User: What shape does this take?
Amino acid sequence: MAVTIRRLEEFDATEGFDCGDEPLNNYLRRHAWINQQKSSIGVSYVAVDEAAPGTVLGYFTLAASSIPRDRLPKKLVRGLPSYDLPLILLARLAVDKRFAGRGMGRALLAEAFRISLQVADEIGCRCMVTDAYRDKISWYAKYGFVPIDGAGENGPQKMFLDLRTIRATLQNS
Amino acid sequence: MTLAAKSKPNPTPQRPRKSKFQADLAPSEDSSLRALKAELQLTSNSEFLVDALTLFRWAVLERKRGHRIVSESASGERKILLFPRLERVAPDVDLPRVDLHWSEREIESLAELALGQPARPTEALIRAMRG
Assistant: This one.
């Protein structure tokens, strides 16, 4: 199976997508296209089989965000330019259950990293964050995401990855 | 150049339809086509069209993914392909903005991570990026 990852298109077949998590299914089926094209609050990328290019096997969504400088600890930002801290948010990532365990999640994550590096080159950005489900923390940690302190005990865990860490993998290859 | 597609009536509904193309080329384009066919050792216009289609499809996919198409010389000099039709499919790399809720402790932790030294890549990250 030859898989391509590309931007979500209007007539992609998302109805049959099932990753086992209804909010993630529902986002792809109902909101991803509208958010991308009309509301402009997230761009979704989908993995598709080249033999059936409209059927979505997995997806991720990226958006940009930032932390206002005046909310950052003064001791840490002293001497830095007076700009907000820009972030790339990996808002969602899911793989259809039928294709789980085949490295699809890893391929989607790697593509999200490549796009993030490209965005960082264009507009400047230092890090990527995600809101991980508790049972996925170790999966993200495997790729270098670090838990951010201060999250509640039951909700999703914010995690951080420095884009320089990702860039280092390309420079050393 | 004009391009016309001619299709014969389909004898059985299940069989994939083949299309025929007829192109009116200016003399300079025609000689370019012949030179390219000779250079690439292609014997028919169909072969030429199929290869050209493969190459064009790849280029469109790459630009749709936001990738640039670059040629690099032996000395490392790089040239980026700028082809107006391809730029129509290129995505805008600016991502839309969203606001997240951050607690004070989360912001402090994030700032320490973001303003500190980057961690070394994990083995899994290295494999993912090289895969």
In short: The beta strands of chain A are 3-7, 43-49, 52-67, 85-95, 127-132, 146-147, 157-162.
